[in-house]
Design brief:
Layout: E1 2-4, E2 8-10, E3 19-21, E4 37-39, E5 42-44, E6 48-50, H1 59-68, E7 71-75, H2 87-94, H3 99-109, H4 116-128, E8 134-137, H5 139-151, E9 156-160, H6 178-184, E10 189-194, H7 197-204, E11 210-213, H8 223-227, H9 233-251, E12 257-260, H10 267-275, E13 280-283, H11 285-288, E14 298-299, E15 315-316, H12 323-328, H13 340-351, H14 356-359, E16 364-366
Parallel strand pairs: 6-7, 6-13, 7-8, 8-9, 9-10, 10-11, 11-12, 12-13
Antiparallel strand pairs: 1-2, 3-16, 4-5, 14-15
Helix pairs in contact: 1-4, 4-5, 7-9, 10-13
Length: 368
């Protein structure tokens, strides 16, 4: 602990930029590395989940990610469930360069009501393509649309917010009891974000299949600036991974997947997240650079269009290549923005590991 004056003490924490992975005495051929990830009854070719953000995921890009072997999650509070055809709106937003004007316009377009029939239609569109189906709602909307999502036949129900607790307290409204809510659902739930051991442990006790670690959308979020809230991701992932271990002992062997969600701008960050204990990573920023991304080179999260307190902004990302190239290559950039799966495979091979679970044991160091 570090003393902050006489009245406060604080822990030393680390982000992904503060740490590095240490190679061992053994290396492997990349072709021998297996990156498959199994959660609940489904197995994926690689442990990457596409984040439910309108600049990244449309039904078409969710299908594309699924066909490549990953999991794409659609934001069920986004433009695709508010408008029958959101493409003109996405095109309009891409033409607005002024940050304040863009925020005001997003607040306007996202004020349209969510249409339950569009939730059903979008989920069915993805299902008809023969890939896994996942939709995300905020904790505030989860109970309202849960029955619609369940009837749509999703494989995963994602409850995602800036920070989600199992013990939300309110004197003005009936709070969502996550433990009761999740256990009534007939579909596996992934819930988050959280950033501490205790918060992660509480979310695991709700019966969730996976827990999101972090606040998501690092390139677009400004939660630190607006609320003063932040926990660097390397420490957050390691703490929640420790909660996973202790929860396994507490529950008699139930395994809850830890999914890093935030500060994953480049392939090296993904490798570091798994080295710190994550089972998978929810990525957004790299996918926003894909040619097919709905944001057309711009990136934003749900915090950017909050009706009364926006704490995010659109960020100009540009485009580096196709979605295939960003995820599985080949890459033609040297900066970790393309071939995320190939880079993760190479990281494991370079350090001598054959799968991601083993890679969680790799040695890491802290930059001085």
């Amino acid at each position: 602990m570090i003393e902050i004056g006489r009245a406060k003490r604080a822990s030393q924490v680390y982000g992904f930029d503060d740490i590095a992975i240490v190679p061992t005495r053994r290396t492997r051929t990349p072709a021998d590395v297996k990156l498959t990830w199994s959660i609940d009854a489904l197995t994926f070719e690689f442990p990457l989940v596409a984040a439910p953000m309108d600049s990244v995921m449309s039904p078409a890009t969710a299908i594309a990610v699924g066909r490549l072997g990953g999991l794409g999650v659609l934001n069920l509070e986004g433009l695709w469930t508010r408008y029958a055809d959101p493409e003109p709106i996405l095109a309009e937003l891409a033409e607005v360069s002024d940050a304040v004007a863009a925020t005001r316009r997003m607040q306007e377009v996202y004020s349209a009501p969510i249409q339950p029939e569009l939730i059903t239609a979008r989920m069915q569109q993805i299902r008809d393509a023969g890939v896994p189906v996942a939709g995300a709602l905020s904790p505030q909307r989860a109970q309202e649309f849960a029955s619609v999502v369940e009837r749509a036949g999703v494989d995963f129900f994602v409850i995602r917010g800036t920070t989600v607790s199992a013990e939300h307290v309110s004197t003005a409204e009936q709070p969502l009891n996550l433990k009761e809510f999740i256990r009534k659902l007939d579909v596996p739930v992934i819930v988050g974000g959280c950033a501490t051991y205790q918060a992660g442990l509480h979310l695991m006790r709700t019966g969730a299949a996976g827990v999101l670690v972090g606040f998501g959308g690092a390139a677009t979020g400004r939660t630190r600036n607006v609320l003063g809230v932040e926990v660097p991701m390397a420490s957050a992932v390691a703490d929640v991974a420790a909660a996973r271990r202790d929860y396994m002992d507490e529950s008699g062997g139930r395994y809850v997947h830890v999914i890093a969600d935030g500060a994953l701008g480049r392939s090296g960050d993904i490798a570091k997240a798994i080295a710190c204990g994550a089972d998978a990573c929810m990525v957004s920023t790299p996918l926003a650079r894909a040619e097919e991304a709905p944001g057309r080179g711009w990136h934003w999260g749900p915090e950017a269009w909050h009706a009364s307190l926006p704490r995010g902004e659109r960020v100009r990302m540009g485009r580096v290549g196709t979605l295939d190239e960003v995820l599985v290559g080949p890459s033609h950039t040297p900066d970790g923005t393309m071939n995320l799966v190939g880079a993760l495979r190479k990281a494991l091979a370079t350090t001598g590991y054959t799968d991601a679970k083993e890679f969680q044991r790799v040695e890491i160091v802290v930059h001085s």
